[in-house]
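CO-FOLDING WORKSHEET

Operator: S.A.
Ligand of interest: LMY7XDAE
Run index: 398
Mode: holo prediction, single chain
Checklist:
[x] sequence pasted
[x] SMILES validated
[ ] output reviewed
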Amino acid sequence: MGNTEHRKWEEKSDVYKQAHHPPSSHAANVISGKELARQIHKEVQNDIAEMAAQGSRRPHLGVILVGDDHASHCYVRNKTRTATLLGMSSSTIFRPASISQEELLELIDRMNKDSRVSGLLVQLPLPDHINERAVCNAIAPEKDVDGFHIVNIGKLCLDQRCMVPATAAAVWEIIRRTGIETVGKNVVVVGRSKNVGMPIAMLLHSDRTHERPGGDATVTIAHRSTPLPQLKELTCLADIVIAAAGVPHLITEDMVKQGAAVIDVGINRIQDPVTGKSRLVGDVDFEGVKKRAAFITPVPGGVGPMTIAMVMKNTLIAEKEIIFLREKEVMRSVMQAWTRKRPTLFRDWLSALAYGTVLSEYKMFRDASRASATGGTFSTKKSPKTSLWFNPSQIISE
Ligand SMILES: Nc1nc2c(c(=O)[nH]1)N[C@@H](CN(C=O)c1ccc(C(=O)N[C@@H](CCC(=O)O)C(=O)O)cc1)CN2
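OUTPUT RECEIVED:
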């Protein structure tokens, strides 16, 4: 479609007119991803401190970094530094870009089996000769803090609790913590990548009453084959626009409805035409769009810092999951031992009393098991906070 044609489309379209209501005198609220990330860091840090106070070990983040891509090295450093700040331990295994897929899979297998590692991720992108899907599927699903394993993706699509990919979780938390309404709203996700656009769309369209609650929004996914005029028609109707296309400044002021929320997931390095220096921009023309939107995230300082925070949260969840699975196993052996001793236990009028004894015996076993696993002692137990992800108390009551 040429320029004149495009203009004609704009003039005829009601959608265009709707999007061109007189501009509001209020500029958008700029959502600080850095500030929200600080909130999450504090929550994770407090949980870890509480676990440590109870004698539990600290979560450990394992990272595999292949090659010498400068940005990847920065992101990994950022993750491991944040982990340390929050009270976790971490380790990064560096491998050259020449590593074979087989060697990489063996390394992942070793880290899967290493009981000291709570969460594991392989930094992307990988060199072309390595099959990214095979690598993501090699990570144990319960350690998969990126949420890229096929089992975690499957669970996400079935609205089950799972490791939610960090960037999608970041967008979700930004929306929730800012108080942006999603139920019944029109959302356009621009970009359909399996690691970002698709999981964001999954979170936002799904039912808020399901095991992994969703946003109950009407979600449209646009992508590179969506013609620009059609994209504009869709975004002009959207209450929330999520830009995750990897196209610098794709979303301009004229494409956004007055009062919409605009979340920019794009991270594009471009050469500034004025200074000639390289700089980071998003998929949204921030200066233009902020005049029409009610909420907008900046780049840098928006979704990026939140993504790192969500990796931290996922690592904590992975460690909690390990603790609860261990407890479940202890509980099962105690129950087995008791039913062997007292075959009529659950038919007996006195079973309630007996159950109390089982519980106290279980607690004894549990404390012993925790102590042996952590080298410390355990005295108290507090239910973990539950959220989009795992619900350990559900696992125990299975
Ligand atoms: N295994 C993974 N690999 C990659 C992921 C991922 O989630 N898992 N995502 C990206 C890289 N990434 C995290 O790994 C990431 C990218 C950017 C940021 C960030 O905070 N960006 C800053 C700006 C940073 C800069 O100046 O360059 C911002 O937006 O403010 C965090 C994480 C691909 N690989």
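REVIEW:
Confidence is low (pLDDT under 50) at residues 1-23, 371-387, 390-398.
The chain has two domains: 22-322, 344-397.
[x] output reviewed
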